[in-house]
Structures are given as structure tokens and as C-alpha cells.
Amino acid sequence: MSDHESKHGSDVEKDDASRSDASETSSLPRGFRWGVEARGTVPVPYEDRRDTQFYKVFFVWFSMNFNILSFSTGTLGPIVFNLGLRDSCLVILFFNIIANFLPAYLNTWGPKTGMRQMIASRYSFGFYGVIIPTVFNLTGLCGFNILNCILGGQALSSVTNNSMSWTVGIVIIALLSMIVSFMGIRVLNWYERLSWPPVLLAFLVALGVGGKNLHYATAPPAVPATASQVLSFAAIIAGFVITYSAMASDFTMYFDPKVSSRRIFCYAYLGYVVPIVVLECLGAAAVLAAPSVDSWSTGYGPDGNIGGLLEAMLSPAGNFGKFLTVMLALSVSANIACTLYSICFNFQVLVPKFSHVPRYVFSVVGTAIALPVSIAGAHKFYSTLTNFLSLIGYWASAYGGILLTEHFYFRRGDFSTYDQADWNIARRLPWGAAALGAGILAFGLVIPCMDQVWFAGPIGRQTGDIGFEVAFPLAALFYIPLRTLERRYQAIS
Fold first, then answer.
1. What is the pLDDT of residue 12?
2. Alpha-carbon distance 151 to 22, whole Å?
3. Distance between CA atoms of 187 and 476, rounded to whole angstroms?
4. CA–CA separation, 277 and 92 (whole Å)
5. Quick check: helix, strand or coil at residue 126?
6. C-alpha span between 308 and 320 (Å, rounded)
7. How many Cα atoms sit within 13 Å of 225 on the Cβ side?
8. What is the pLDDT of residues 35-44, one digit of tens each?
9. Please, which residues bridge with residue 137 across strands?
10. Non-local CB neighbours of 312 within 8 Å, separated by 6+ positions
11. Candidate from 133-142, 210-219, 244-253 with smallest mean pLDDT
12. CB contact set of 185 (below 8 Å; sequence gap of 6+)
């Protein structure tokens, strides 16, 4: 990184929280003006996109994924789908390599448009039509927060030998994350750059003191993996990452628009793939070895206590191991804080009048939603995780197909066609009927291609779950004729 890049980026980081319209800034209480980001859904003008510390996007995604949720997702291969270590890791590697292309690419839209992801989506789905994917996205974002709160609460409780309830742990995690997200992008970038080293240390120590037990995980499964098992686990893996597409540009919209899209893509892609693949594979190995290690089996327990398993892995390190377990518990706050940050803008898109409500208010709302559901679902973690991740990937895949078709086919990849003056004017945006129609038609075939614990379609029952693979191309194909008609009739009207 050049001296100019460092100095310029540093200046921007000091100012980017206040880089919003005067009306938004003036609405802040005096006591918050020193650090709270005021900007909500209003796009960032070209001249105000000056941040050149582009590496920050790597740390945002790296820290969001370098936590115990990624670890726990990897355990689903053996626990839910009865896959061995080799098959689990191959699915994890291959489908992460593919599925992360979409969210990584959409990160490049932030510097070019200066728009939040759901605001940019209005140029395909329309002012009112975008409410539908926003509802799906809000559901997914709140779901991730619930899962992370449960995991963090479990881990904190394990440190106290369960003398502190999971509920208290969940409240601690939720409130810490809310405080970070409340402040906005400046504090988020600072926090994400500092939150991952203790997590790395914890996993390295866990491997150092318990790695010798992982050889138990290498035993081949009693029955070879079937296509159905592999593809159903693949749907879980894809669902974990592809939903990041709907929040991608929220974290890059302040960047200098002259930056190479390839550079932003590479930073984002590595921020996804590296932590997710490593920790998901480690999770698969640990849960396979747990039945053969008494302390691990006890920590994991009958309810699938991931925090207890990690505490047991670190227990040979004594009090230092307990300290590292606390660090692992707090690691989920890096994910929750960023998710709460995006939740704010989704509420403002869902109800456009909410754009006049300060952004940070919705951090409190998002926390209020996640807390009671996390507490209620804490002891049903595996069923919650499996059902949630298997469902959310389908809509996000179709959403991505529609956005990319609009961008490359109808707009010829030209970001200048996303006129910022149109962002909040319904009549100057697409009607959205084509995008919604393409998504609905695509799901006519996606549903029969599902094969999950809660539902199996006739095609999916034979092939395994291929729903998310089908959703993307089908939505894109249906969108072309529907959008062509929409453009024609919208021009006439």
C-alpha cells in the first residue's frame, strides 16, 4: 500500500461517517455527532467516494466469517447428512469456490454506484417490487443473528461450566454487537480489523492441544456418500454464503470509484473463501472425532453444544483455554454487528418513509427481534441451522441471476446507467413486474428440485437438492423476455 493510499484512506476513514447529506447529519443528537454514521439509504455522490483503503473490505468479510458459525456449519455434513470427512471437505471446498463468486462480484458495485445493495436492486426490481427480496433478506439477516447469538451464548455458558445460563450469554453477545453496529461504518471497519487475531489464536491453540485427536475423524463412513447427501449438504454450504449478495455493496459504497473492480473482487472473495473453507472443514473434523474423545463428547452433549465442544478442545490449556473460549464466543459479534448494520437499510427500503428515521435506530430494532427468538430456539440449534440455511439460498440465487442479467444484458455492464437521481423516484425506475415474475416462474421448477429434511420434491428426491443451481439460470432466462416486454410497455406509458 502506497503512502498516498494510506494517508488518503486514513483521512476518509475519519470523515466517512459524516459523509452524508446535511439534512441527515443535522438530525443526529449533538452527543452522537462525533462518531455515528448518519447516512442511511441515500447514495454517496461521486465526489464523496474517496476512501482508498480498499483492503478494509477483506477484513470485513474475513472477520464476519472467521467465527464459530462457520465452524458449526461444517459440522452439518457429518451430523445431518452422514458424510465422512473427505466428502464433507470436498463439498465445502468446491461449492464455496463457486458460490462466493456472486457476493464477491456484487462488492464491486459499491464504488461504481455509491449505493446500498438493496437500493441498487431497485434498478431491476423497481421501487415497490424490491420490497419482496427485502423481506426475504431481512428474514435471512435476522436468522443469521439468531444463530450467532445462540452460538455465542453457548460458548460463554460453557466457560462457567453452565453456571451462567445460555440466556445471559445470548444477551451479552447481542448487546455488544448492537453497540458496534450502532456507530456505523467507521467503527465497524475498526472493529473488524481487530476482532480476528484472538480468534485465530484460539483455533491455533485448540489445534495445538487437541489436534492429535482429529485422527479419529479420518475413519471412512460405513456407507459411501450418495448424490442426494452431497447435493443436499451443498445447498446448505451455498445458502451460507450466497445470501451475502444482498448486502455486498453496503460495505464498499464509500470507496473511490476509480478502483479496479478486480481488486475489490479479490479482496472480497478471499475474505469469504479462506475463513469459511478452513473453519467448516475443521468443524467437520471435530464433530466426527468428538464421540471418540470423552471430554469432547461430554462438552458437545446430546443437544449439539458447539460452544461446549470448543471449550472441551481448549480445556487442556487451563484458564488460558477458558479465556480463548470467551474470545471465540465474542467472535460472533463481528458477524452480528455487520448484519445489524445492513438490517438498518433493509428496514428503510422495506418502508420508504423509514428513510427519515436515523439509521442507528434500526440496530436497536434488529437486536430486539433477535434476542427473544435466540433465547426460545437455543436448545434446537441443529434443526434451526439446517432448516434456515437450506431455505435461504434459493431466493438469493434467483435474485443474483436477475441482477446480473439486468446489468450485463440490458445495461451492457455500464454503471453510468444507474442514475443516482432516480434512486428514490418510482416512475423513473423499472416497474419490477419482470423481476418478480422471473423469480416466481423460476420457483415453479426450483420447488420440485428441493431435497431437504423438511421437504423433498419429485426431482430432488431422485437427484439430490439442485434447487439453488437451478434458480440462478432459470431466473435469468425468464427475466430476458419479461424485462423486454416491461421496457416496451413502460416506454409507451
1. 44
2. 40
3. 38
4. 6
5. coil
6. 16
7. 24
8. 578 788 999 9
9. none
10. 293, 295, 296, 298, 299, 300
11. 210-219
12. 16, 17, 37, 251, 254, 341
36: which DSSP letter? -
Reference 407, options 193, 146, 123; nearest CA is: 123
Do residues 152 and 169 lie in contact, with contact meaning Cβ atoms separated by under 8 Å?
yes
Q: At CA 83, angle to CA 79 and CA 87, rounded to 5?
A: 140
pTM of the model: 0.89
In whole numbers, what is the pLDDT of the chain averaged over residues?
88
Q: How many CB atoms lie within 10 A of CB 77?
A: 32
Q: Among positive and negative, which fits the CA dihedral 51, 56, 58, 62?
A: negative
β-partners of residue 456 are 451
Residue 169: all three cell numbers together: 450469554
Residues 311-349 as b/e (b if ≥16 CB within 10 A, e otherwise) read bbbbbebeeebbebbbbbbbbbbbbbbbbbbbbbbbbbb
Q: What are phi and psi of 163, to 5 degrees?
A: -75, -25
* Residues written for the chain: 493
Phi, psi torsion values for 51, nearest 5 degrees = -70, 125
CA-based R_g, the chain, Å: 22
- In tens, the pLDDT along 269-307 reads 999 999 999 999 999 999 999 999 999 999 998 878 888
What mean pLDDT comes out for the span 254-281? 97
What pLDDT band is residue 433 in, cutting at 50, 70 and 90? very high
216's grid cell:
479419529
